[in-house]
Write a structure and sequence with these properties.
binds 2-acetamido-2-deoxy-beta-D-glucopyranose, single chain, 6-stranded mixed β-sheet, about 240 residues, 4 helices, 15 strands, Thaumatin
Length: about 240
């Protein structure tokens, strides 16, 4: 039996080793300023009030408590005033810089993370389409935790039917087939809500070829969700 004092030491030891909290580094490698959005899952604390701005090559470390889960996405073409009021051209959450629980409007590429369940699960999802490259890179010395995501700009080769253009005719985002056509077949809903019925399509295969470690349709290969334990994570945009 440990004494009460030793239990205190154990607890303190674990605390200073950092296992009670983990660090997410958000890094902007894009050549433009972006505003990452962060949406915690039900009941979890909203990190950074759900949003921040990152200039090119800027990064920020955020601390998340043990057991946290939620998603990260990038917003581009944002115009916010000093109060954080305004909108973004892609990934907008509808309430300004600080999303405070609101999600991003599709199309947006998203990183999803659930910590300590009992290991950490993470993936990058293109189910809601693609707006900018995003990857999850574990800070992992052992080299066993995979990096997932997409560092290719899928907008450049987006299938014609999925393209959304900006005012100057430039391609701003690439919809997923589900957001573009909203049919049970592409969204894996209704009678297609079944892995045997809902199969890859030419659209999901386009995403998969360019970014093999991402989720490209609802019943995509479960190996697109990977695990790690006791790690901090770099969330990289572009
Ligand atoms: C951010 O967190 C990472 C991972 O824990 C660490 O390696 C890095 O030194 C931190 N950067 C700063 C500026 O604190």
């Amino acid at each position: 039996m440990y004494t009460a004092l030793f239990q205190e030491i154990l607890h303190f030891g674990i605390f200073i080793a950092g296992v009670d909290a983990i660090v997410f580094t958000l890094q902007n490698r894009c050549d433009k300023t972006i505003c990452p959005g962060i949406q915690a899952s039900g009941g979890q604390p909203q990190l950074m009030e759900g949003g921040l701005e990152l200039k090119p090559l800027q990064s920020r470390n955020l601390t998340a408590p043990k057991g946290w889960s939620g998603r990260f996405w990038g917003r581009s073409g944002c115009k916010f005033n000093v109060y954080g009021e305004g909108t973004c051209a892609t990934g907008d959450c509808g309430i300004g810089l600080y999303c405070n629980g609101a999600g991003g409007e599709p199309p947006a590429s998203e990183a999803e993370i659930t910590l300590d369940s009992p290991v950490d699960f993470y993936d990058v999802s293109l189910l809601d389409g693609f707006n900018m490259p995003i990857s999850v890179v574990p800070y992992d010395d052992s080299g066993v935790c995979p990096t997932v995501g997409c560092d290719t700009d899928l907008n450049q080769h987006c299938p014609t039917n999925l393209i959304v253009r900006g005012d100057r005719g430039e391609i701003v985002v690439c919809k997923s087939a589900c957001t573009a056509f909203q049919t049970p077949e592409y969204c894996c809903t209704g009678q297609f809500q079944n892995p045997n019925r809902c199969k890859p399509t030419k659209y999901s295969q386009y995403f998969k070829r360019a970014c093999p470690s991402t989720f490209t349709y609802a019943f995509d290969d479960p190996s697109s969700t990977v695990t790690c334990r006791d790690s901090d994570y770099l969330i990289m945009f572009c």
